[in-house]
Amino acid sequence: MTSVQVTIAATGKVLNVPTGLFINNEFVSSVDSQDKIECIDPATENAICSVTAGSATDIDLAVRAARNAFKTSWGKNVTGFERSRLLNKLADLMERDAQDLAELESLNNGKPVKIARDFDIGDSVACLRYYAGFADKIVGQTIEIDNKTKVAFTKHDPIGVCGQIIPWNYPIQMWAWKVAPALACGCTIVMKPSEFTPLTALKLSELIVEAGFPPGVVNTIPSLGSVGGAALSAHLDVDKIAFTGSTVTGRKILEAAAKSNLKKVSLELGGKSPQLVFESADLEEASKWAALGILYNTGQDCTAGSRVYVQDTVYDAFLEKLVEKAKALTISHAFDEKSGGGPVVSKVQYDKIWSYIDSGKQEGAKCILGGVKRSGKGYYVDPTSVRLLLIYALTAYAMTVFTEIRPDMKIVKDEIFGPVLSVGRFATEDEGIELANNTSYGLGAGLHSNDASQCMRVSQALEAGTVWVNQYNLLYNNVPFGGKKQSGIGRELGSHALDEYTSVKAIHWNYGEKLDWPL
Amino acid sequence: MPETFTYTFDTPIYKGKTSFSTGLYIDGKWVDGSKKTTIDVINPTNGKIITKISQATSEDVDLAVVAAQKAFDTVWGLNTPGTKRGALLNKLGDLMQEHFDELAALEALDNGKTFGWAQDVDVTDSIATIKYYAGWADKIQGKTIETTQHKLTYTRHEPIGVVGQIIPWNFPLMMMAWKLGPALATGNCIVLKPSEFTPLTAIRMSELIHQAGFPPGVVNILAGYGGTAGAAIAEHPHIDKVAFTGSTLVGRKIMEASARTNLKNVTLELGGKSPNIIFDDADIDQAVKFTSHGIFWNHGQACCAGSRIFVHAKVYDEFLVKFTEKAKSLKIGDPFGIGTYQGPQVSQIQFDRIMGYIDSGKEQGATVHLGGERHGEEGYFIKPTIFTDVKPDMKIVQEEIFGPVGVVIKFDNDEDVLRQANDTMYGLAAAVFSKNIDRALQVAHKLKAGTAWVNCINQLHPQVPFGGFKQSGIGRELGEYALENYTAVKAVHVNFSLNVE
């Protein structure tokens, strides 16, 4: 009823995609709104389908469903063992459907199918399994007070109903990062996927049912941020909100939480992450990691290494290698196994990135690569080769590189969220560190050096939640991730994510003290 | 070539078939023992031979250790990341689930416990334990520790290497799961000796382990006698850790062997004479049910059996009447019979031992309140037995009987019962029944036992540690605690900037 048939043009495969709101394990219409969200294929600008746009009232219904489930079939009413079993089952189902999910993800987000399947979904399946393993290991402490009369202990209770708002850059993976620890701890969820990329979240909701989660444990409401996201942030019966997205929106959410019921808030926000290349670095390797840092996911990554500072003595050599690496990356159609990236996700993002490129030129930075728009639109295939002109693919080359930057330039300060790299230089280690830390953000940082003592000093000095040494961008489900400064509050992944979804209760149990009264 | 054992179950409550190699499982292959000798596996229901299996001697242990070490150095240990180790353990759990009834039936055939209990407890808990440790495999973490600004100091929790595991006959499959889970999760390679009395489920498991995809040499299963294969493991110079569950007597030998040879790390789960204290404000009906479970579950063949039953004078008569009635209601018979609660004891040796204790009880002047004799003509069945009018110095009060024999002791003083309860060289478990939680907790906290049950008994969970105080053991199994048994902590100090003169 509330679903459409979506055809994958390249293969002719037809996928059934639910388009309703997912509440209590059913797909339903909005109770009071006719609004729809149109989903666009960024490679062709064509509409894929429309989904129901949830209203504030729909959010309220979803919260009620989640609250009811928390009180009856989930929360403290389900054992860790059972939560583990269901999460493992969900992982198995996601693995089973990996190809279909990857194609849908690619269609809606633009990333290559191979990358969606092997990286995004592969990591997401592993994430679900990692937290499945934690579900029956949520422990508190017993604490010595007075052995004769008292026992004190803590319980790590599930927080309750959690609103989760996820972005469009890694729709499936961000879904897994949020859903897995929340369910492992016993929380129930109202998930608001991005209005740009809601389709895989809706498809995954079908797997929630198939895995056997009770109704109301996971609810999915596609909605505009200003409607559904705002409603969740302000809702009086939501115990916690977890958000990944821009710093601007993060502020609004924190404000709404403060003004409503002081719900717990965790935020994964933006970044302007620096990479430092020191003279002892393996320049060949460093140039690859630097390229990866700004090109992965077409630069649409909160940890994108969007500033690279190179030590004077190796500046020219490094830059030459970097440009070479940029030119080597193929941007191609989604089913090309050799494609290293796709278009950016939407017209809005496209325009925003171009305005930054223009501002860079205007403020006097030197554009040494890219910076020229592709012409044309549509998806073009000729008999001898596949030639793709992507509407939102920015330039003939995978990235745009600016040099001769100054710290006050917009391209150096603001998060661009596209494949635009600012390259600067430094003389001393201290100068490099200062340039790197000169930002209101603090999400990621990288350093490349073969001097172990330097690696130690610099990694200690960089103000970021994740520091990569002789590497960049790679994350693991068991290592925590999150921002310092204005890049966020809280940590995801690893055992730390459990802290975000549990609430510590201390129980003081008197079994022998009689109170002297009056005092 | 080892023979294949094939058996068809045709019983009122289970019909099915099992078929597997009876060889030793070494380096991914099923082989004869080096001496080509075999062990007869006896059906305790009728004393008849079920099958022969290959016997491992010290030469086989040597071969297994070589295979295990090679696997550790090449494909296991930290060469396989935790996520992969966890995936294999999960796969093993899934395979056990697929063969659930077959495993339960095999366990009942070999050990004598009922098919129903094997299903509800043994196989269920074994799968849960394997899956629990699958979840730990990628979460073995050390710490980074602040020392000075010149240094990075951290710990690594590394797998030990080749570990020996010797398991008993009372819960063959479950004891195997308790050992395999943490050892494999942390990356160790294993030489495991199941009991010569009950090797069948362990040998069946070797095929599931192989099917799950554990590389050859990671798990080696060698059925053999304690005095030969067991001793060979305890003394082996290239086994770096031995974990043993069994009698305190044998536990000492293993520890001595370690001291004499390579000081291998030793953890022991030994015997018990666990007290079960029923206060006058207990829920008597519940206490009766739990007490029965405490001593008669698994035919009394549980290390944590609540075998000394202390009952407050005020409720003694009521309790004894109800407890006796409950004990009488337990149906003894064929493990595959409808409604059977209790099957035979595991072997002739155990049967004789338990009957010997019953005789000693009679000789030393205790009253046989119920049972106290064999059941039937065939097999090793002993009737649920209750002794009263006992004195603290009687053998049946002091020594572990490991059979369906409980001693009931009257008391009227809280302090004194606590003293009596703790007056034992053992310290595995204890139970307290009282609706006054203050009283229950005060007593529970003072009982010298590794597990204290309040208003329940004999309940175990994979997440909760289990092990003994005093001569009941060293170390803890289950829970996160078990991981310590199988990891070696290495501290790494990396100096970055301190230069010395």
From TrEMBL, chain A:
Entry's Gene Ontology molecular function annotations: aldehyde dehydrogenase [NAD(P)+] activity
SUPFAM superfamilies in alphabetical order: ALDH-like
Claim: Lyase is one of the keywords in the record: no
Catalytic residue positions: E268
Keywords (A to Z) from UniProt: NAD, Oxidoreductase
Family annotation (Pfam families): Aldedh
CDD domains assigned to the protein according to its UniProt record, in alphabetical order: ALDH_F1-2_Ald2-like
Residue span, Aldehyde dehydrogenase domain: 33-384, 398-507
Entry-linked InterPro entries: Ald_DH/histidinol_DH, Ald_DH_C, Ald_DH_CS_CYS, Ald_DH_CS_GLU, Ald_DH_N, Aldehyde_DH_dom
Family: Belongs to the aldehyde dehydrogenase family.
PANTHER family, A to Z: ALDEHYDE DEHYDROGENASE-RELATED
Protein name (Swiss-Prot/TrEMBL): Aldehyde dehydrogenase domain-containing protein
Gene source species: Antrodiella citrinella
UniProtKB/TrEMBL annotation, chain B:
Catalytic residues identified in the record: E269
A GO MF term: aldehyde dehydrogenase [NAD(P)+] activity
Keywords: Oxidoreductase
GO biological process: acetate biosynthetic process
Aldehyde dehydrogenase domain: residues covered: 30-492
Key word Aminoacyl-tRNA synthetase present: no
Record-stated family: Belongs to the aldehyde dehydrogenase family.
Name this polypeptide is given: Aldehyde dehydrogenase domain-containing protein
Organism: Antrodiella citrinella
